[in-house]
User: What shape does this take?
Amino acid sequence: MSTGTVISTVDNITLVTLVGFPAQVDSIATIFESIAEYNINIDMISMAPTHGAFTGLSFTISDNDLVDVLAFTTKLKKETDVNVIVSSVNHKISVYDPAMKNTPGIAAKVFSAIAGTKADLRLITTSEVEISLLVTEADFDTVLTAIQNAL
Assistant: This one.
């Protein structure tokens, strides 16, 4: 990696996964509008490939918003057939480098380093210049050290 590589972390992250969620943009917009009404800030977002009319939609929030998101998900479960999975006390590790955009193999290096840890990766999101991983509390130190050593 270049001298511009920055590895950052955020702790106390809750992962919310909506299973059997309608794979339509208007449904996604409605869900995020509803969550915003609870004054919950969303960070990472990931959508699984669609299976017919349905998909899995995952997003992260601060553990500080756990009570509010549980109020939202309880209402959602009562009104829809969407299955909700909530997992708190996770950590986000992000590897940022503007050079990543034009440097093949960075993701391979990061994931090869993590593979040796046997860690439980909860969520992966990327952009042209960043790889973000959500890991459990139990795996955080091991994964962070592996990435730091690899880069």
Helices lie at 25-37, 66-79, 106-115, 140-150.
